Amino acid sequence: MVVRATVITRIGPANRLGSLTNRDNDHVDPPPPDGSGVIVARGFDVDYGRGQLARMLDDLGSWVAVTQPEPWALLAPGLPAEPDRVVWAGDLRPRHLDRLAAELPAGAAVVGIGGGSAMDTAKWLHHRTGARLVQVPSLPSVDACFTRMTALRDGGGVRYEGDSVPDVVLVDFDLIWSAPRALVAGGIGDVLSCHTGLHDWALGAAAGRDAPWDETAAARAREYLDDLEQLAPLLAAGDDQGVRMLMECHRDIGWLCHDLGHARFEEGSEHFWAYAFEHVTGRTIMHGELVTLGVLTMSTLQDNDPERPRRIADTAGARTDLDQLGVSWDEVAAALDRLPSFVEDQGLWYSVANGLELGPDRLAAVRRALRVPSAG
Ligand SMILES: [Zn+2]
User: Are residues 50 and 81 in the same domain?
Assistant: First the structure.
């Protein structure tokens, strides 16, 4: 188990404008009472437990739920008070989000409940209106509840904008474990992406492109991957501690992105492939699962120890077979085919995707990495 003793800087709700110095900046999480190792992360305030939102509603007063049908159906029956309004998340185009912000009841708190699109929508409403913000992630699949900017879908790609810090992130283990275990395990994707992201960052730095190398940040990112190795079996076993450790990784990653001013250590060609997949197919699957596929694919094309992310994903019990994910090999290959021009069109960071050449051997290697039976 890993216990980190680095200097901790906590970004509290008092600090909405980007400065890293605030009145809460020397807070260090106490060790857990049972003495077991939990990653000591920096980042937004988090409350781990069960049923926290129900207890918080009195304090919130009028509130708007920004959510998705499944998590809302699970959480709503246990709440003592209904929201003023339920806003369905899903459409992340800026024009739609701005219309939602204009229609937000004055003085209402915004509570994001669900996956990445709910978190991102809630962040944007907070960013535009200054409403109080509480985030209740339903899966540990996204770091969206721990990052400040909203991932807007704009112009056929993704654009990050805004600066939102929630009052608190409520990690409700009952809500999390109400999802199938494999989906919870899919939450590793945005941490596993450090494996390929670091490699691409090194390529970019060596090429003199984008953000220069930062060894301290890179070392931290390697620690997240070591943590994943440790928490993977806990996730597979349905252990709260696995969720907590994974969320602490996401939390620290959100902090590090903000501190560095970029996300190169955790966002590289695996994410770019995922965006290209969304672009060529016009649809998406759960973000963490899509990014995990991207890591397995791109680590192969990077010649970057693809066995490690494969081992972690399998140990965690994440779904990676295309059949399970409802993805066809043709879609994977089409996204790969489009990838080199896509990263140029979108002006994405330099990575192995730039100038990527895919001969039959390379495609066959990806096929094997994804356990797709070879074509006749
Ligand atoms: Zn991501």
Answer: yes
Q: For 227-281, what is each residue's pLDDT tens digit?
A: 999 999 999 999 999 999 999 999 999 999 989 999 999 999 999 999 999 999 9
In the chain, the amino acid numbered 128 is R
> Closest Cα to residue 165, out of 180, 150, 153?
150
Q: How far is the CA of 160 from the centre of ligand 1 (A)?
A: 12
**Pairing mode of beta strands 133-137, 168-172:** parallel
Residues near ligand 1 ion, CB 5 Å cutoff: 190
Please tell me the distance between residue 78's alpha carbon and the centre of ligand 1 in angstroms.
30
* 266 C-alpha to ligand 1 centroid (Å): 8
Question: Is 171 in the same domain as 235?
Answer: no
Confidence (pTM): 0.85
238 and 326 assigned to the same domain: yes
Cα 216 to middle of ligand 1, angstroms: 21
Give the CATH number of the domain where residue 171 resides: 3.40.50.1970
pLDDT digits (tens, 9 = 90+) for 309-326: 999 999 999 999 999 999
- Residue 127 has a CB neighbour count (10 Å cut-off) of 21
CATH code where residue 336 lies: 1.20.1090.10
